[in-house]
User: Fold RING-type domain-containing protein from Dreissena polymorpha.
Amino acid sequence: MGSGITKPRPKPELLQCSICFNVYKVPRMLPCQHTFCEGCLHSYIMTTAVQDAEKNEFPCPMCRDVVQVPQPEKPRFKWAKMFPKNRLMISLFDGQFEFSDSCRLHPGKLIEFFCENHVEIGCGSCLVTRHKGCEVTSLVRLYQ
Assistant:
């Protein structure tokens, strides 16, 4: 029988692609930090590429920032796979990160953030030691 304690879960819309409105399938992150399903991003790129076949860039579907393709010499149908997987979203979907879990380096301290640079989670002590100056995302914000 369970302990009766319910661990907080991320808001459902955080795990939802803004193109297809379904749970992410292979979430890929653009440089502007917006994330989309790999398949949705592929379809979007192919549609946008048809409109302007000469360019090696496309606008983000959310913020319209111009996105430069990492390897423009590759065929357009491979562009979506070139953007990094959003490992934080994958981990949240897989249930790897629980807000009440303790930090592995500082037992007893709660996990508070995800480090984009090192692709790992940590507590406040980690933030001021191992991840000072890193790009981090607060997990508190994700769970509100």
Summary: The longest helix spans residues 38-51. Residues 1-8, 96-100 have pLDDT under 50 and may be disordered. Residues 97-143 form a domain with the Double Stranded RNA Binding Domain fold (CATH 3.30.160.60). The chain has two domains: 13-86, 97-143.
